[in-house]
Design a protein that fits this description.
Blueprint lengths: L1 E7 L2 E7 L9 E8 L8 E2 L5 E7 L3 E5 L5 E3 L2 E3 L6 E7 L2 E7 L1 H8 L10 E3 H5 L2 H11 L3 H18 L5 H12 L6 H8 L3 H12 L3 H18 L4 H7 L5 H12 L3 H4 L3 H4 L1 H4 L17
Helix pairs in contact: 1-4, 3-4, 5-8, 8-10, 9-10
Length: 291
């Protein structure tokens, strides 16, 4: 297990990750533990994946979504969830799982495609299974054991679930590999599909249209370049935005803040420690493009 600690305004997060990563393609995991009082109001930054936050132990966490609803405990954040903030986080332990959209439906069930842009409590999705997972994590003696338990649980669900079609999975991979900068119409041409068919299949199986997926992937790379200290004009040029105003609009749309302020957001500044690879595409069958 690799582990470290990150200080944020006097609070300490202990951050752990599984050595060697997950054995499940399209999955990345990290463990977080609060050893102080995490400041209220920390902004949660959308990621190009579906996030499952598994809370366990005696602490408490509540999140306010973009509509002001408060959610407490373990939750699932869909692809491209809106601006949300931590409302309260006290002495918590959390194992966070990031799922590639290409496997999220298989792991979470068909409802995964309905979660895009929103958050729900894990209890509402799985009922009694959710607290059982929390009890198992709390009973584990180490983060290594917790990661192994979660890996086994994810592998079992993936084995019995229904993934997107190989064509849709391939299209998602092309978006990720291009950092969101390819022309979506070209995907339809390579697949031999009409534009309408690609939009329909992609949206129904991943929850968002391909253009939205590309925007989210592009934003993710831009956000990390901003955190690395690059100025907004350079970031816009490097990450495929038409200009700096285009970058500003996307950052505001995904986070509710500006590029200048985004660079100091704690949930991004710990990414190099918690998530060495920011996007985890699932391994999918190769598609032979038409022509």
């Amino acid at each position: 297990m690799a582990a470290g600690a990150e200080w944020v305004d006097g609070a300490v997060w202990e951050v752990s990750r599984p050595k060697g990563g997950s054995r499940v393609p399209g999955v990345s995991m990290a463990g977080f533990g609060d050893r102080g009082m995490t400041p209220e109001g920390l902004r949660l930054i959308p990621h190009p994946g579906v996030t499952v936050a598994l809370l366990f132990g005696g602490g408490s966490v509540s999140v306010a979504d973009e509509f002001g609803r408060e959610l407490s405990g373990s939750l699932v954040a869909g692809l491209g969830f809106g601006a949300a903030r931590l409302r309260r986080a006290v002495d918590f332990q959390c194992l966070q799982v990031r799922l590639s959209p290409a496997i999220a439906r298989a792991v979470l069930g068909p409802v995964a495609t309905e979660l895009a842009g929103s958050m729900v409590m894990l209890d509402d999705l799985w009922g009694r299974e959710a607290p059982r997972i929390g009890e198992q994590l709390a009973g584990a003696s180490s983060w290594d054991e917790r990661f192994a338990l979660t890996d086994n649980w994810l592998a079992q669900r993936l084995a019995t679930g229904t993934p997107p079609s190989s064509e849709v999975s391939w299209a998602w991979r092309q978006i990720v590999d291009s950092r969101g900068q390819l022309r979506i119409d070209e995907l339809a041409v390579e697949l031999g599909w009409s534009r309408k068919r690609l939009w329909s299949r992609f949206g129904s199986q991943l929850g968002v249209p391909p253009t939205r997926a590309a925007s989210l992937v592009r934003f993710d790379h831009a956000a990390h370049e901003l955190v690395a200290g690059h100025n907004a004009a350079r970031v816009a040029a490097d990450t495929g935005y038409a200009d700096q105003s285009h970058l500003h609009r996307d950052v505001m749309a995904f986070t509710g803040t500006t590029p200048a302020l985004l660079r100091d957001e704690p949930f991004l500044t710990i990414d190099d420690l918690a998530w060495p690879a920011t996007i985890q595409p699932a391994v999918t069958p190769k598609i032979q493009p038409v022509g």
